[in-house]
Amino acid sequence: MDSNGGFTKFRWICTVIGLIFSVADIGSDLLVSLQYFKEGKCIWFALTLSFIIIASLCTHVFSYVWFKDDRENEELPKACLVAVHLLQLGFFTRYFKLLKASFKSVWVQDFEPNSKTLHLFGLAADLSMLRLFETFLESVPQLILQLYIVLKHQHASVIQYISMVVSFLNIAWTTVDYWRCLRRSLPNTMEMPSGFPTAVYLLYKVLTISARILSLTLLIMLHIYSILAMVLIWLVGTVWAHMIKTDFCTSLCLEYFYRGIVGFILIFTFFNLQGKKSILPMTVYYIFSTLLNLSAPILLFLFKPMTLGSEFFLPVMAFIMVANTMGLVFLVLYYTALHPRINRIPDEVDAPGFSPRETCTVTRMNRFLNV
Predict the structure, then answer these.
(1) Which has the minimum average pLDDT: 83-97, 125-139, 351-365?
(2) CA-CA distance, 197 to 16, in Å (whole number)?
(3) Strand partners, 370
(4) Positive/negative CA dihedral, 63, 69, 73, 75
(5) pTM
(6) What phi and psi, each to the nearest 5 degrees, are found at residue 272?
């Protein structure tokens, strides 16, 4: 169904599932941090809790600004809006607004005008973008940290495994849900077909991101200063965003902040910031990504040969190589044979006939199209 269709029961249920994953992810990470605190593992406790807090703060900055830009705060007094976001409840406020606004049209089967449908998809699109930010700022770093603790320090517990599994599921769900919601929310853009194309896209993203997460974990195990390699990748991604002059936010200050987050996401996966064909930058990105992924186990073996005798080394090395290769195969398959192809609207959207709310969302989503 394209964006001209209604907000379906399936979309409503997917929103509920996304909420469950978000709550489960944050909740399990909080339980892990509490376990570390009780065990006196102060550094692990601080790092686990820090990822949660930093991701929430960053996400709520965008949530608050978008509420203001889209004039959604007409339903909430400004003081209430500020308080909600200071309490880090803006994320869940958006879930409540979307589920409430869509409930009648979905379950009562009331006819909704096109403007109402666009409004619902706009709310869903903004929420999916915020979930994407939160996932790469919290779930992905959290997964690297917990893997490092389990592999390096042989410290494992049931709640740690639950936390890692939930983080992985959240990453997989958010990545595909975002892409499907994004394409459904834009006019003149064909929706991603369900079934096989969605499965191939999911496998491409999950496998390449998994290989990157494990390779970075091995690099950190080699030496803690390997984190500087991640900082370098972040810096290159951020500079790239500055060089192509992204135009995503309404203020220059927030645009710089957005470019920094873009650089961080680029540590783990590729997305196109230019709003046009991305064959060359994507090819360059995955060449360097593959080299880094393959170099991690090799460097660990050369400089710490004792790791060869550990029970995790060979399975992890094999998984990195297989996941990276298969992920690239699915990437080529998706973009050569399965990717919907239709002319898109320009990056600067006049969106005649849209309300200010829909115009802001369409413009924002179109600029963030090629994740």
Answers:
(1) 351-365
(2) 23
(3) 272
(4) negative
(5) 0.86
(6) -85, 125
